[in-house]
Specification:
Chain B: InterPro entries: AAA+_ATPase, ABC_SmlMolc_Importer, ABC_transporter-like_ATP-bd, ABC_transporter-like_CS, ABC_transpr_FbpC, Mo/tungstate-bd_C_term_dom, Mop_domain, P-loop_NTPase. Chain B: One of its GO terms (molecular function) is ATP binding. Chain B: Pfam families: ABC_tran, TOBE. The complex is a heterotrimer of chains A (281), B (363) and C (272). Chain A is mainly alpha-helical and 281 residues long. Chain A has one domain (62-277): MetI-like fold. Helices cover 76% and strands 0% of the residues of chain A. Chain C is of the alpha/beta class and 272 residues long. Chain C folds into two domains: 5-129 and 233-266, Periplasmic binding protein-like II (D-Maltodextrin-Binding Protein, domain 2, 3-Layer(aba) Sandwich), CATH 3.40.190.10; 132-230, Periplasmic binding protein-like II (D-Maltodextrin-Binding Protein, domain 2), CATH 3.40.190.10. Chain C is 38% helix and 18% strand. Chain C contains ten helices and ten strands. A five-stranded mixed β-sheet of chain C has the order 2-1-3-10-4. Chain C has a five-stranded mixed β-sheet with strand order 7-6-8-5-9. Chain C is elongated and about 55 Å long. Classes of the chains: A mainly alpha (281), B alpha+beta (363), C alpha/beta (272). Chains A and C meet through helix 2, helix 7 and helix 13 of A and helix 2, helix 4, strand 7 and helix 7 of C.
């Protein structure tokens, strides 16, 4: 859609022998240097992993059943956590962005708490609420016989706890940035608030929701501290890739590198695919 | 409810719109009473920040009132929530939903009102066809021209079968070259609507062409109301006078003589008018009625003042000369006359206006 | 950049380990001729197993009190984690591990030649022992009496992951007892096991005697005879990369001294 502009630009650049074009100037070094340093800082650790990876034994290591189980668990729980976050987080973002009620500011601050506290503490907090002896957990246990810790559901909950704020903040920003007059227009056409939300607001902030969901998914996929604290660590049940990486680190750093690379490549592949489809703006 | 209501309506119908709107926000206060008959098009004309849009928003229920009422077809809608008011609104920039086709934009309202998808689309298609937009029914709003978008917005507003149609600066988003066509077309479409229409504009030309009646809003109050011709001929405030391009003065009449002032820049000046009046009056005359002379003219005009040139600007194919002195006024002369007079900033000149050209009306 | 001899130790360490991860750490250090681990300004970096938290914190106060200007920077974590950090060039002067195997990793990682500069010899000294105990919540919901009960149905158990020292000890104990316990979770360190017991999330966990002592009345400790088969020895040593061998040796001596022994005993440690 925007191909016209840059394309035309490229054409003039190609024509070297034509009359001189206006020089747009080189990018200022005050931006380029820090940018390159920043990129290097992000890329080099990854390069370190690649260099140290035991490529010769990669194939067999990757296909070990434990690795595949952890990978599958990671992907499925992160996806489930993202879905839960969407279900709960988008309405929460709406509440924060579109309504005014006493304590809204406080609630907004509370939403960002999981971003600030160490995930391990978050895991303990989850245990205190949803654990077997937790505030709510004890009733789940005595009334329904449900115990959450040490189950895949606990993994999802831990991930939702740390990852949902990314979604909420991203969607709230999108909602605040959206032109509210469209919502008013919909209201004058007879749309109820719920209809306005689903038919007008949601489509308008869809890019924001997409970006938030991607962030949320990525954060959930990498989640470690809250997961190991709240859900525990048992292969096949609650041991996600980051936990497997951590455990491998204790025993065999090379195995940890292999696992890290698998996690990285799979998540990059998924994000690249999603980016193509959703964040293509 | 539209057809039923019409059938049961007694012969003496209540006004389509009867509203008294009071609201205050920060330092701004609005206090406006409006009435419009069935099929009447009322234009709210005023400078930016005068509160015109607030009036529309209050009528639509988008801005809460601190007092007053809104009655549409005699029914009190003061506390009706936006989504249930019998209104249709065309917003500035039209605000078409970008993620829907033109057809779905128009069908949106009927869907919200409970029509089936098929019925809503049929109604939308009918409206678009009526507006000459059948070929663009599937188009995304961003691919429509300004005039087409305006008609889609109008169709969308009319699709909900409103009893009151509200238009906020319907011409503002259009470029000058297309305005004449679009304005004429909009006027024809608005004339077909049988409820009351309130439109807001800051452009006097739009107001003159589109409206049956103009209400001039300044600083949250209606300062003048009347048919376009009346407003154009007899402005009541300097703002309106400037809009319609007239020289306007306030004064006290004794017979055919009006003594200007005491306020303003016309202190002590006299104006001779055609008819006899008494008491507070306004006098107005167009700049083209002013003749300029290098020396005191003999005979003809009854009003002659010696003034100083304050500024000269191009005005269409004429030149507008701003004059100051005993009173401040604008005069339009041809470029040739300007050259002949050798006028420039600070030149002294005699300005004359025939008494018959001066409009005088109670102030 | 000119390299000055006395400050080169950490870089040598990096060169020896040559870990990819270390590359970044060394790069960061190499930026200036600045001070890596305690550079004679009285700062002593002690890396110690998490189970030593209370003991070493108390000893650090003592140490600093006797030596004005000295500052002990304590870094507590799982022993293996610390070993990995040290092998990757983390600035450390002293390392106290929760088992000898982990200490060996560091010795290997560093190259045997570099050896240990502790006290007189070239090896790490064992300064404490720790034995496993079963920890249960005060109300003992699982009715756990002995080691065999851990394998019972409906008893939820938290164990250390095999990869960490307490997990290795657990495995030894299980072998000795001839009981295979399948836990609900393999925790990453012994403190995490203790937390799960304290919160009542599990009916029992295998932790060290020291952990039971530190938890006070929040957990109950149950001794079991098989624990004697899995006594954990805590070695301590000065790292070759230290910038202040004197201060580091002082610290090791304090840990090995009567004072150290007393504080260790209070925390539930045995002494060799």
């Amino acid at each position: 859609m925007t191909a016209g502009g840059p394309g035309a630009d490229r054409d003039t650049r190609r024509g070297r022998d034509r009359p001189p074009r206006v020089r747009s100037g080189r990018p200022p070094w005050i931006l380029v240097l820090p940018a390159l340093a920043g990129a290097a800082f992000l890329v080099l650790p990854f390069a370190g992993l690649l260099i140290r990876a035991p490529w010769s034994t990669m194939g067999e290591r990757v296909t070990e059943p434990e690795v595949l189980a952890a990978l599958w668990l990671s992907l499925s729980t992160a996806t489930a956590a993202t879905l839960v976050s969407l279900l709960l987080g988008v309405p929460l973002a709406w509440l924060l962005a579109r309504t005014d009620f006493p304590g809204r500011r406080v609630l907004r601050a509370v939403v960002t708490v999981p971003l600030v506290i160490p995930p391990v503490v978050g895991g303990v907090a989850l245990l205190l609420v949803l654990g077997r002896n937790g505030l709510l957990g004890r009733y789940l246990d005595t009334w329904f016989g449900i115990t959450i810790p040490f189950t895949p559901a606990a993994v999802v909950l831990a991930q939702v706890f740390v990852a949902m704020p990314f979604l909420v903040i991203s969607v709230e920003g999108a909602l605040r940035g959206a032109d509210r007059r469209y919502e008013e227009a919909a209201a004058t056409l007879g749309a109820s608030r719920a209809t306005v939300f689903t038919r007008v607001t949601l489509p308008m902030v869809l890019p924001g929701i997409g970006a938030g969901a991607v962030l949320c998914w990525a954060r959930a996929l990498g989640e470690f501290g809250a997961t190991i604290t709240f859900a525990g660590n048992f292969p096949g049940t609650t041991q996600t890739m980051p936990l497997a990486v951590y455990m491998a680190m204790q025993r065999d750093p090379e195995a940890a590198i292999v696992l890290s690379l698998v996690l990285l490549l799979v998540s990059l592949a998924v994000l690249a695919t999603l980016r193509e489809r959703w964040v293509n703006t | 409810m539209g057809p039923d209501g019409a059938a049961r309506t007694p012969p003496a119908r209540p006004p389509a719109l009867d509203a008294e709107l009071r609201l205050s926000r920060g330092g701004f206060s609005l206090d406006v009473a409006l009435e419009a008959a069935q099929g009447e098009i009322l234009a709210l004309l005023g400078p930016n920040g005068a509160g015109k849009s607030s009036v529309l928003r209050a009528l639509a229920g988008l801005a809460p009132l601190t007092g007053g009422h809104v009655r549409v077809d005699g029914r009190d809608e003061t506390t009706t929530p936006v989504e249930r008011r019998p209104i249709g609104m065309v917003f500035q920039d039209y605000l078409l939903f970008e993620h829907m086709s033109a057809l779905d934009n128009v069908a949106f309202g009927p869907r919200c009102q409970g029509a089936t998808r098929a019925a809503a689309r049929e109604r939308a298609a009918g409206l678009l066809a009526h507006m000459g937009l059948s070929d663009h029914a599937g188009a995304r709003p961003r691919n429509l021209s300004g005039g087409q978008a305006q008609r889609v917005a109008l169709a969308r507003a009319l699709a909900v079968r409103p009893r009151l149609l509200l238009l906020d600066e319907p011409m503002a988003a259009l470029d000058a070259s297309t305005r004449i066509d679009v304005r004429g077309r909009l006027r024809r479409l608005l004339e077909e609507f049988d409820g009351a229409t309130v439109l807001v504009t800051h452009d006097p030309l739009d107001a003159m062409v589109l409206a049956d009646r103009i209400a001039v809003v300044e600083d949250g109050r209606v300062v003048q109301q009347g048919p376009p011709a009346e407003v154009a001929r007899r402005p009541r405030t300097p703002y309106v006078a400037r809009l319609v391009g007239l020289n306007l003065f306030r004064g006290r009449a004794e017979g055919t003589t009006v003594l200007l002032g005491p306020r303003g820049d016309a202190d002590g000046a006299r104006v001779e008018v055609g008819g006899a009046h008494r008491g507070e009056v306004l006098v107005a005359f167009p700049p083209r009625a002013v003749a300029l002379y290098p020396r005191h003219p003999h005979g003809s005009p009854r009003n002659v003042w010696r003034l100083t040139v304050d500024g000269v600007e191009r005005f269409g194919d004429q030149v507008r000369v701003h004059l100051a002195g005993q009173l401040s006024l604008a005069a339009d002369v041809s470029p040739a006359a300007l050259a002949e007079l050798g006028l420039e900033q600070g030149s002294e000149v005699w300005a004359g206006v025939k008494a018959a050209e001066v409009e005088c009306y109670p102030g | 950049m000119r390299e000055s001899a006395p400050r080169r130790a950490p870089r040598t360490l990096c060169a020896l380990t040559a870990a990819a991860l270390a590359a970044t750490a060394c790069g960061a250090q190499g930026g200036g001729d600045g001070s890596p681990a305690g550079s004679g300004d009285g700062e002593l970096h002690v890396f110690a197993a998490a189970s030593l938290t209370d003991v070493f914190t108390a000893l650090a106060e003592e140490f600093e009190g006797d030596r004005p200007g000295a500052e002990v920077v304590l870094n507590f974590a799982g022993s293996s984690e610390l070993a990995a950090q040290i092998n990757s060039g983390a600035p450390a002067d002293v390392f106290a591990a929760a088992d000898t195997a982990t200490m060996r990793q560091v010795v290997e990682g560093e190259g045997l030649d570099a050896g240990w500069a502790s006290g007189s010899g070239g090896a790490a000294a064992v300064f404490a022992t720790n034995t496993l105990r079963i920890a249960v919540p005060p109300d003992n919901p699982g009715g756990v009496e002995d080691f065999a009960d851990l394998a019972g149905d409906g008893v939820s158990v938290a164990l250390c992951a095999e990869e960490v020292p307490c997990g290795a000890a657990t495995a030894t104990a299980m072998e000795a007892a001839g009981v295979a316990v399948t836990p609900d979770t393999y925790e990453r360190d012994v403190r995490a096991v203790l937390t799960k017991v304290e919160l009542g999330e599990v009916d029992a966990g295998l932790v060290y005697a020291t952990d039971v002592a530190s938890a006070g009345d929040r957990v109950t400790g149950i001794d079991f005879p098989e624990a004697d088969e899995a006594v954990n020895e805590y070695p301590i040593g000065v790292l070759a990369g230290t910038a202040d061998a004197g201060l580091a040796s002082d610290w090791v001596e304090l840990v090995l001294s009567g004072t150290g022994e007393r504080v260790l005993a209070e925390a539930g440690f045995g002494t060799p």
